[in-house]
Design a protein that fits this description.
The complex is a heteropentamer. Chain B is an alpha+beta fold. In chain B, 33% of the residues lie in helices and 22% in strands. Chain D is of the alpha/beta class. Chain D has two domains: 219 residues, P-loop containing nucleotide triphosphate hydrolases (Rossmann fold), CATH 3.40.50.300; 111 residues, no CATH class. Classes of the chains: A mainly alpha, B alpha+beta, C alpha/beta, D alpha/beta, E mainly alpha.
């Protein structure tokens, strides 16, 4: 077991290193200078700042020093938000985005699966078509429309929930609901297809021939086998949720990582972008690793040698 | 069975750990006399690197000043008195007794250090061997800014200019503190010294900042009555509107024109001194940063742009009044370089009243289609084109900002309908790239936004002097000299610099302005304005747009 | 000089690496030879490697050892143009009628693909004519040509598969369980057709199957395989009447015969135990753990082939 | 009232689909006595699996519809019961084993748990007791180490072991009828022999009767006391093993036996093959299903469904050749001691 | 030899002697064979029968037609501003009203639809094809080649696609074609991975082995044999990729790299409309409505196509519905009977 974990760890580190390298050089290719915006008419100021951050040194030297700081897990200081270290930003923002993402997952996944199961058991019925239409509608409405409309309806007119910011739990309810809509739609659809697929297997017929009740057949045999493949998709889903949804964070002015991703790329904030990309790569790799571990433990057929 | 339980616990632990961490976010303290206002949070509070005016808005609250501006005029704060030498070259300020929030006294050296640390190209020229220091020829000690003793600050000028105003709006900055903090200066509330009316107690990036009244502020009793201020960071228009209508926010420092229509009676307008207009690249060259050399641009396009009549045709075709009313009603249409807010000869009068424009050389505010067509015909004739169709394609450089893109599209379509010009093409670039292209002259037409510094119109015109900030932005001795150079214009601006008599100086400025307007090098269109919203129960809030900042000097809340 | 054998296989080996030091010994040192026009039956239980032998001969799998000699030429390492020429001499008929035909091509296209690839026939017209003639030869009709596989029964699809194989006019055909997936009545039709075709185009078959009675009917010589090795090979009449190897005896005893009185009276002791795992096999006879007569020698030394009669060889220490 | 354990009379089952109806079973009659093994033989698509699965009502009803007929077991007509009613019988009175043991066991649950589930459904006994019964059953089917098998997962067992587990599970509630749907088709010959042996041993020890479905005539010869040959949804010939193997009277049975190359005896010069393919039961032929493939086909065979004639006690054949009015005399080509079927000489 | 024939049934079934005459020619008795069905026309027939599919196809054709005709027939140019008639609500003259600078929104929305559709369709199709080629190479050759390609895919998936987009767009300039190339180069990883999986699935199928033994080269096998089997349900994936491309373009225009003005796209129009959706709701409503209709129609068409390709799914829905109906009937009957015979 430990040999497997060591091997996976090595691969993860290699992947993260590769991602960091590719991203480092890709960013440098983008035209423009991170400091030009501060004082457009004064080129001297831009050169002074470049020197201050050591960006005028040859690229190779910068890369090596960046790798060394990467080993110390220090992502350096942000270029646009002077004085603020990328590590602080991640430590400050990531829990909020993660909380939103995971709350949406905890809300969306069970409901999505439940809807999927019921619409598979009562397939072809009104409920089944209702779910399908619902998932179609919720995926075709762009999220910034949904967010703004719900903010107005529930926040301003009905005053059920506070409209913005991220202070108490009540503040998190509205954004979590919106983010979970997409998750519900996705899980409902995939769960339904999986349930129908398992429905055609022979061991369901054996179960029926054993004379056990229909409910027990569905729960113990059908759902148990249908849920397993859902776990494989979980890894990537958690990773993308943890990186935050830019639009919902913008509308509800939630201090999450989502917004930082976009502004740091457009603002050519090299250190911030690199920090976020490497951090995301680490999360993706970690999530996949945990999911594989879980899958090995839960599904007997997958042997972890 | 055991193995499976372990797996599920592992997964749950991973989820719970992140949720618990976030729960510790602090709760706001509901204090009597508190005010919540929505604005965009500053990039940094590092005074040395402070870049955008958003940052200076916060310094207005957290830091004491030698002279503090309020609602249009300036009053002394830490400056007890100011003695001026006969030759008006040396100014000696004696400071009042004041302390930082942690008790250390504010000394003259702090002010001196601040002025030297934040000195840039233009401001250095005023002070003795300031430019030499900037070019590295002498050390900071030789610069004419030094603290004689704890309470007296001495400022020596290189030469006497009419523009220099002794009421310096500068902050104290302790050298030892800056060196100790290094890169972290201004990063978090702990990396700042507070001498102003408020202390920044809490800053949750991207969410909110809390300021508490600073008891040790020099005249805490007389001003800034509010006990607590909360700045909420929000960039989303519908989000801001929802906060205002649901009562979560008392003041919105910036709202869009649409939101203004929704809450007309709470909305207030301000006109900033950011002048926006068209700039033409008549140099025929552009700078290639990769090789560090200058490359020629399309000669035919340069010939067309250098033709004065063509530029006039474009300017006269624009109905500025209608354009501003439609695109940015908070703005002020202008057709001249000195802003209406600039003071005239006598105290009460305005410059624009004392020196009115004569119709023959400036485009009327409402635009003049016939004159535009006439100028265009003359230009075609001079350039030898049979018809409008043969003109080469001219690139209008623009970047993604709602109003800027709309302005580009409207100008293009107006020129097409009025003058029949099909050759103007809009070239979109991301913000960074666009600004770089402007600096490296990689454009034909650019919608420039320049601070018109209404208080001193001369310094605005000075930027177009040969070698001035805009003419020679590159300061790299380009082969073409500078973007615009007119000997007569230079002489007038130079002379105005040393003319102390207001009436004479204003006359010189008017003449210089007329020359520039006639040549249509910079075609002014509007002064950018803006709206901000204040709840009814808030009195005495003054905001001059996000330029100078939010003046809570005498703001009270009666809920 | 007329070669005595059409195809000779000496010490053929094929291992499948399963990672972590585990290799599957699918085919382990198999040798046999087939005379032109003769049919060799290859029987054995599932997992004994008979299909792998068939596929390795046609280079679907790269052989890991041993030599394949076709008409005297060593074609083990041959590839590229020469291998494509060999395709017109050696062909294969597949097991599953539903999976061996491309559902998106009509029967005509499937059969004529061999002609197209190897450029047999001057132009399209000639090729279509040859396709019709082939379809008739395998008992399908001309208008079946533009129909899709899903419109045919199992038997008809297998006929199409055979027509495809015979399109390139091969000499040697490997029938990989060609009739195992069919019903008994349809099986008889296909077997009769295969025997007619053998006479008509004097084909040489390597008939791979796990149904011993069908192999006895169609093949002249029979080889019995167990866990990647040939344990007994010889004339069909010899092997079926006097089986020498204990495994063959057990196998023949286990096959049920359609005669109730005989079956019910048969006092047959079913072979005990299960097939051992073909992974990382150790030397020694692989049937040792199930063989009633196994001795210590059987468990350590791999038995080699010994002649027990005219053209009848057995790999067992007991004889 | 009837002395048979299970009696199926005139059973019609058809499968409804979007386009229409496939009449899979078109009037099947058979009976099963206690302690007897009935073989049900036929090629694929002849309706044998549908028949037995309908006895246990395993197929969901809307596609499968019992048009007519009755399935009488112990005086109760199972065709009329609804799903809840049938549940008492499934597992307790009847139990079933399937062809591909690999997919018939739930891959994510241990063997023991799957077997315990069945026991707990029919008897309220404690876990320990259930485990004892299960271990006893596992040893009865000849699995060497029942304790480890109990806690292992299905994918770790070989084909033969999995089939033994299926048998052990099926017999754990001592059902009176065991239905085996092609239990050994997917297994190798040697393993098949072992499984058949186990089934016979259990039949004797637990005095259950078996309905054995297969398409392999050799297997049915070994197992079945009585057998019925099915073709195109009907039983065309039924009787004792000796009747059908040695004195077959139906042309299809001749073809079936003739086209099987056998290990014993000399190699026939050419296999007897039946031309053509079985009819599509989407719209079945009016008369006898085998008409289009039968050499002795008469007009009546095309138009009228042949009735069942009792050729010998228990030996019934559904064919017009046996009708007294049939003119032609036919010499059955197959069958050890089959005689000439005399035709009515033309006047 | 006693008489074999047993009387077992009465003779009154009205049969005559000639009934027992042998059938003249046996080839005449041919059982009914179902009509021959070609695969693709069959899929088409099933698609047409499905009401949902027809509705979605109709909706798409209407939108496409409007996108082509409206800008041509409309009296107003899509980029002509008329400052006098700014901010007009929807009226007969301007069905969708006019925007801030007086441009007719009806023309602009359908001009925007045109660009969005072109970018959507081509922007989804190019990565699909690129992914197909790369997936085919890595799926077919396997071994080291496959491992390297898959590692590259993993790494590129980790890096936000926005970086590639900006890089490519800035290098190639802001024209729609470069936007499409950017979408292709940053979006191919997903379809590459799914194609590789599909090809691995088919690689050991018997008809592919048969083609190899016939001497066919890998290229021919992939094109002639594997692709026709895969393209069916990969097309379903394509339907859901188109909305992705439309939204990607809207995202890119948000940071200044989208369609260069004065041309516009639905994404741009609806995000501009969002700024003013409190006062001029129609500016935002119509472009977003069209986007939703396009996504909605594509999704329905994707589902219908999946059902048409594999009718088993839809038949089973129909049967399950019947199952519940009959169960309800039987339960009601048994209750009635129980009530009756009490």
């Amino acid at each position: 077991m430990t040999k497997y974990i060591l091997k996976r760890l090595l691969i993860s580190i290699l992947t993260i290193w590769a991602v960091a390298t590719v991203c480092f050089f890709l960013l440098r290719l983008l035209p423009g200078n991170p400091f030009i915006l501060q004082n457009p008419l004064d080129m001297k100021n831009a050169e002074k700042m470049m020197a201050f951050y050591g960006l005028d040194k040859p690229l190779w030297e910068q890369y090596v020093s960046y790798l060394q700081s990467l080993l110390r897990l220090d992502f350096g200081y942000s270029l646009t938000h002077v004085g603020r270290s990328v590590n602080d930003v991640i430590v400050q923002y990531f829990p909020i985005t993660a909380q939103l993402g995971i709350q949406a997952l905890l809300l969306g996944m069970p409901i999505g699966m439940a809807l999927g199961i019921v619409s598979a058991v009562r397939r072809g019925g009104a409920f089944d078509y209702g779910c399908q239409i619902g998932s179609v509608v919720s995926t075709s409405i762009p999220s910034f429309v949904l967010a703004a409309v719900m903010q107005l309806v529930f926040g301003v007119y009905l005053k059920w929930f506070p409209v913005s910011q991220w202070l108490s739990f009540r503040h998190t309810i509205l954004p979590t609901i919106i983010l979970s809509l997409g998750i519900i739609a996705g899980h409902c659809r995939s769960m339904r297809t999986l349930m129908l697929e398992v429905g055609r297997q022979d061991y369901l017929k054996t179960a029926k021939s054993k004379g056990i009740s229909n409910v027990r057949i569905v729960v113990f045999h059908q759902i148990r086998n249908a849920i397993l493949p859902m776990i494989t998709g979980l890894g990537m889903e958690i990773a993308s949720l943890l990186m935050g949804s830019y639009i919902i964070e913008k509308v509800f002015s939630i201090p999450g990582l989502g917004a930082y991703f976009v502004t740091s790329i457009t603002g050519l904030d090299y250190t911030m972008t690199m920090g976020l990309v490497v951090f995301q790569a680490a999360i993706v790799v970690f999530a996949n690793f945990v999911v594989d571990l879980l899958y090995g433990l839960i599904d007997p057929r997958v042997r972890i040698v | 069975m055991k193995k499976r339980i372990v797996a599920i616990l592992l997964a749950l632990a991973m989820l719970l750990s992140t949720v618990a961490l976030a729960e510790t976010a602090a709760y706001p303290v509901e204090g009597e006399g508190s005010l919540t206002f929505v604005a965009t949070e500053p990039n940094t509070l590092n005074m040395v690197q402070a870049s955008s005016n958003l940052d200076s808005a916060v310094f207005y609250l957290t830091s004491a000043m030698l002279y503090r501006p309020y609602n249009g005029n300036v009053y002394p704060e830490l400056a007890a008195k100011c003695d001026v030498s006969e030759d008006k070259l040396t100014y000696t300020y004696t400071l009042k007794d004041a302390v930082y929030s942690d008790g250390t006294p504010i000394v003259a050296a702090d002010f001196a250090y601040y002025m030297i640390a934040t000195m840039d190209g233009t401001s250095a020229a005023y002070y003795k061997n300031g430019t030499k220091y900037m070019n590295g020829e002498c050390t900071a000690a030789d610069v004419g800014i030094y603290a004689k003793d704890e309470k007296t600050l001495v400022v020596e000028l290189e030469m006497l200019t009419a523009d220099f105003s002794p009421e310096l709006e500068i902050y104290p900055l302790q050298q030892a503190f800056v060196e100790a903090k290094g890169e972290q200066l201004g990063g978090t509330p702990a990396d700042l010294m507070y001498s102003g009316p408020y202390v920044l107690t809490e800053w949750v990036y991207g969410s909110y900042m809390t300021f508490k009244k600073n008891p040790s502020y020099v005249d805490a009793a007389a001003s800034f009555p509010l006990a607590e201020l909360r700045l909420i960071h929000s960039v989303d228009e519908s989000g801001r509107y929802s906060m205002f209508t649901s009562g979560e926010a008392d003041v919105l420092t910036f709202i869009s024109e649409e939101t203004q229509q929704m809450i007309p009676n709470q909305a207030k307008q301000y006109v900033s001194d950011a002048m926006q207009g068209l700039e033409f690249n008549t140099t025929g060259m552009m700078f290639d940063a990769a090789q560090g050399t200058f490359l020629p641009r399309d000669a035919e396009v340069t010939k067309v742009l250098s033709n004065e009549n063509f530029r006039k045709a474009l300017s006269y075709a624009i109905n500025r009044e209608l354009l501003v009313m439609v695109i940015n009603p908070s703005g002020l249409p202008v057709n001249r370089l000195v802003t209406p807010m600039a003071e005239g000869n006598t105290d009460g009068s305005r410059f624009v009243e004392d020196y009115p424009l004569t119709a023959d050389y400036a485009a009327p505010i409402t635009g003049d289609a016939e004159a535009a067509k006439a100028y265009l015909a003359k230009a075609l004739e001079e350039l030898g084109y049979a018809s409008v169709k043969d003109l080469p394609t001219i690139k209008y450089l623009c970047f993604e900002n709602g109003a800027f893109r709309l302005m580009a599209e409207t100008l293009q379509s107006e020129w097409k309908s009025i003058l029949g010009l099909e050759c103007i093409e809009i070239e979109m670039k991301p913000v960074q790239d666009a600004v770089m292209s402007m600096v490296f002259l990689n454009y034909d037409i650019y919608f420039q936004s320049v601070s018109s510094s209404s208080a001193t119109p001369r310094s605005f015109l000075e930027q177009w002097k040969t070698g001035g900030a805009i003419s020679d932005a590159m300061q790299s001795g380009a082969p073409f000299g500078s973007v615009y150079s007119n000997a007569e214009f230079d002489a007038l601006v130079e002379q105005a610099m040393f003319e102390f008599d207001t009436a004479k100086r204003q006359a010189l400025i008017a003449q210089a302005e007329q020359i520039m307007i006639e040549e249509h090098i910079f075609v002014p269109i509007l002064l950018q304005g803006g709206y901000y919203a204040v709840q009814d129960y808030v009195q005495g809030f003054v905001s001059v747009g996000n330029q100078e900042g939010y003046m809570f000097n005498h703001t009270t809340v009666t809920k | 000089m007329q070669q005595e054998y059409l195809l000779e296989v000496e010490g053929l080996k094929k291992y499948f690496p399963l990672g972590k030091g585990r290799t599957l010994h699918a085919v382990d040192d198999v040798s046999f030879a087939i005379r032109p026009g003769e049919t060799l039956g290859l029987v054995g239980e599932s997992g004994c490697g008979k299909t792998t032998v068939g596929r390795t001969l046609l280079k679907l799998y790269k052989p890991d050892g041993g030599r394949i000699i076709y008409r005297g030429e060593d074609i083990t390492k041959v590839s590229g143009r020469r291998q494509r020429e060999l395709c017109t001499h050696m062909q294969m008929i597949y097991q599953d009628p539903y999976a061996s035909l491309n559902p998106f091509m009509t029967i005509g296209e499937i059969v004529s693909e061999g002609l197209e690839i190897n450029k047999i026939g001057a132009n399209r017209m000639e090729r279509t004519a040859m396709t019709y003639e082939l379809l008739e030869r395998v008992g399908l009709s001309r208008e079946h040509a533009n129909r899709f596989p899903h419109e045919f029964s199992g038997g008809q699809r297998q006929r199409a598969g055979i027509a495809r194989a015979l399109a390139v006019n091969p000499e040697f055909v490997v029938c990989d369980e060609a009739i195992s997936a069919l019903d008994v009545s349809v099986q008889a039709q296909i077997i009769n057709m295969l025997m007619d075709l053998r006479e008509l185009m004097n084909l040489t078959y390597l008939f791979i199957a796990h149904d011993l009675s069908v192999v006895r009917y169609i093949s002249q010589r029979v080889a019995v395989m167990y866990l990647g090795k040939i344990v007994e090979i010889g004339k069909a009449s010899e092997v079926y009447v006097h089986p020498a190897h204990p495994y063959t005896q057990g196998l023949l005893g286990a096959v049920p015969v359609a005669d109730p009185d005989f079956e019910k009276s048969k006092t047959y002791q079913a072979m005990v135990g299960e097939v051992t795992s073909p992974i990382n096999c150790k030397p020694g006879c692989r049937f040792a753990n199930r063989c009633p007569y196994a001795t210590e020698e059987c468990r350590t030394v791999t038995p080699d082939m010994k002649a027990v009669g005219a053209d009848h060889f057995v790999a067992c220490h007991r004889l | 009232m009837s002395e048979h354990l299970l009696e199926v009379k005139n059973l019609h089952v058809s499968f409804r689909n979007v386009v229409g109806e496939v009449k899979a079973v078109r009037g099947v009659d058979f009976y099963l006595d206690r302690g007897e093994t009935l073989g049900l033989v036929g090629e694929s698509g002849c309706g044998k699996s549908v028949t037995v699965q309908t006895v246990m009502r395993l197929n969901p009803e809307p596609p499968a519809v019992i048009k007519q007929g009755s399935i009488v077991y112990d005086g109760v007509d199972l065709a009329k019961l609804d799903d809840k009613g049938m549940r008492k019988y499934r597992g307790k009175e009847f139990s079933m084993i399937f062809q591909d043991a690999m997919t018939s066991l739930n891959p994510t649950t241990r063997i023991g748990k799957q077997m315990k589930e069945m026991l707990r459904a029919h008897r309220d006994i404690s876990d320990a007791e259930a485990k004892k019964i299960i271990l006893r059953m596992l040893t009865m089917v000849g699995l060497p180490n029942p304790e480890t098998i109990y806690s292992r997962f299905p994918h770790t067992l070989s084909g033969g072991q999995r089939q033994r587990v299926m048998i052990a599970m099926a017999m754990s509630c001592e059902p009176s009828i065991l239905i085996a749907d092609e239990p050994t088709t997917a297994l190798d010959v040697t393993i098949q022999a072992q499984i058949l042996e186990v089934m016979n041993k259990l039949k004797k020890e637990m005095n259950t009767s078996i309905i054995f479905i297969t398409h392999n005539m050799g297997v049915v010869a070994r197992m079945a006391d009585r057998l019925a040959v099915m073709y195109a949804g009907q039983i065309i010939e039924s009787g004792t093993a000796q009747d059908v193997f040695y004195r077959p009277k139906h042309p299809y049975t001749w073809g079936l036996l003739g086209s099987m190359p056998s290990l014993k005896g000399d190699v026939p010069e050419r296999l007897m093959s039946i031309p053509g393919t079985p009819p599509d039961l989407f719209d079945p032929p009016r008369g006898c299903g085998f008409a289009s493939r039968c050499e002795h086909c008469m007009n009546v065979c095309v138009n009228r469904v042949p009735p069942e004639t009792e050729v010998a006690p228990g030996h019934r054949v559904r064919c017009w050749l046996l009708d007294p009015r049939c003119k032609t005399a036919v010499k059955p080509p197959i069958g050890r001691d089959s005689e000439l079927i005399p035709g009515k000489e033309d006047a | 030899m006693e008489e074999i024939k047993l009387t077992g049934h009465p003779f009154d079934d009205g049969l005559t002697d000639d009934d027992f005459a042998p059938v003249p020619d046996r080839s005449a008795i041919v059982d009914s064979i179902r009509p021959s069905m070609r695969y693709w026309p069959e899929v088409g027939r099933r698609l047409m029968k499905n009401k949902v599919a027809v509705f979605s196809i109709l909706l798409l054709t209407v939108i496409v037609l409007m996108a082509i005709l409206v800008p041509i027939l409309s009296p107003y140019e899509y980029d002509a501003t008329s400052l006098m008639s700014a901010r007009k609500p929807p009226s007969w003259e301007h069905p969708f009203g006019t925007d801030k600078v007086g441009r007719d929104m009806f023309t602009r929305v359908f001009m925007g639809t045109r660009t969005s559709l072109i970018i959507g369709v081509v922007g989804a199709f190019l990565p699909f094809v690129l992914g197909m080629v790369i997936g085919a190479v890595s799926g077919w050759f396997g071994g080291k080649v496959d491992m390297i390609i898959m590692r590259v895919v993993d790494i590129m998936l980790c890096i936000p696609s926005m970086i590639y987009m900006i890089l490519i767009l800035v290098v190639l300039g802001g024209s729609p074609t470069s936007l499409i190339i950017a979408l292709a180069l940053s979006g191919w990883m997903g379809s590459a991975r799914s194609f590789r999986g599909r090809i691995l699935q088919f690689r050991n199928r018997e008809f592919v082995l048969a083609a190899t033994t016939l001497g066919a080269r890998p290229g021919r096998i992939i094109v002639r044999h594997i692709l026709p089997n895969i393209l069916g349900n990969m097309a379903v994936g394509l339907c859901s990729a188109i909305p992705g491309a439309i939204f990607a373009e809207a995202g890119m225009s948000y940071i200044g790299l989208g369609i260069s003005p004065p041309m516009t796209s639905l994404g741009q129009l609806s995000s501009d409309g969002m700024q003013v959706f409190l006062t001029q709701f129609y500016l935002f409503f119509f472009p977003s409505l069209i986007i939703c209709l396009i996504v909605f129609a594509l999704f329905l068409f994707g589902n219908a196509l999946r059902d048409a390709l594999d009718p088993k799914l839809r038949d089973e829905d129909y049967l399950a519905r019947m199952y519940r109906k009959t169960r309800r009937l039987t339960i009601r009957n048994t209750k009635k009977e129980a009530a009756a015979n009490e």
